[in-house]
Structures are given as structure tokens and as C-alpha cells.
Specification:
Blueprint: H1 3-24, H2 27-47, H3 50-59
Helix pairs in contact: 1-2, 2-3
């Protein structure tokens, strides 16, 4: 799947999970949203140059 398609899928899922969480307060939905955000950041890092890749990995909250 191309980067643009993955980004579009992420945005749809992120928006959906936020809407469900905001209406229900379900913590599992919030945790799913945070996991999706983390995966999106990691995929962006992998797609970047090696220098940016290493710098961003150091900035991630593990």
C-alpha cells in the first residue's frame, strides 16, 4: 500500500475512533486511537531519510 493510501486510511480510522470515544468515553477506543497515531508516526519515520529516521526515533515516546 502506498504511503498516501496508508495516510488516508489512518485519517479515516483516527477520525472514527475519536468520534466513537468522544460520544461514548470508551477508553479502549481512545487507546486504539493512540496506537494508530503511534503507528502513523513510525511509518512516516521509516519513509524518511536515514538521518531524519534516527533523529525521529530518538524523539518518540516509548
Amino acid at each position: 500500500m502506498s504511503f498516501i493510501k496508508r495516510k488516508a486510511v489512518f485519517l479515516v480510522l483516527d477520525n472514527l475512533s475519536w468520534n466513537v470515544f468522544s460520544k461514548t468515553g470508551d477508553i479502549e477506543t481512545y487507546l486504539l486511537m493512540k496506537e494508530l497515531e503511534s503507528q502513523d508516526r513510525q511509518s512516516e519515520i521509516k519513509a524518511s531519510s536515514p538521518e531524519v529516521h534516527e533523529e525521529r526515533l530518538n524523539d518518540l515516546d516509548w
